[in-house]
Amino acid sequence: MYQKYFKRLLDITLSLILLFFSFPFMILIFFLVWFVIGFPIFRQKRPGLNNKIFTLYKFKTLYDVATNIPEDNRQSKFGNFLRKTGLDELPQLFNILENKMSFVGPRPLLKEYLKKYSNYEKKRHLVKPGITGLAQINPEPSGKKSWKKSIKFDIFYVSNLNFFLDIKILFRTIV
Fold it and tell me: What gap in Å lies between CA 92 and CA 18, rounded to an integer?
């Protein structure tokens, strides 16, 4: 019942509240990114619920390849700051309002991975992707991401999705 009705209501309510309070910052970030990096919105096709492809929105954090900047130098200090603070994810609030994402769920990976998933790994697409998820709040001690561990957390989430798990993940993400 939570997943079918209340999770969506929670997503809409929370995203509207966050948009209301963060919109002035989003406008500021938009123009700062435009000034420092280039066109501020990064769009990429990602698989969502039931493998349906949607357009993910983020603030751009890297210089374009077409700017003739060597690959090693595409990062900017400002872009790194946006990534570190998670501010580059703010445009995904619009993905939530479009009903393509949720606050909590497996992070949407690249669509190229769809061909590589085992049947077990495909289960991660039985729910909407999220801005944060169980794998994000349980990082490896080494700092390196483990594909197998991330998938296990994603499948655990899909199998055990409930209100209290979502609240726990949101709380730990904020902390």
Answer: 11
Backbone φ and ψ of 98, nearest 5°: -75, -5
Q: What is the C-alpha to C-alpha distance for residues 130 and 107, in angstroms, rounded to an integer?
A: 5
Residue written as tokens 């902390």? Answer: 175
- What is the residue type of 147? W
Rounded to whole angstroms, how far apart are CA atoms 155 and 148?
A: 11
Single out the residue of 103, 108, 74, 107 nearest to residue 90, CA to CA: 103
Tokens of 128: 């909407």
Alpha carbons 170 and 111: distance in angstroms, whole number: 25
**Which is more confidently placed, 145 or 24?**
24
Amino acid at 136: Q
How far apart are the C-alpha atoms of 14 and 97, rounded to whole Å?
Answer: 10
DSSP state of 106: P
Strand-pairing partners, residue 45, are: 55
Structure tokens at 168: 């726990």
- Model-wide pTM > 0.70: yes
Q: What is the pLDDT of residue 16?
A: 98
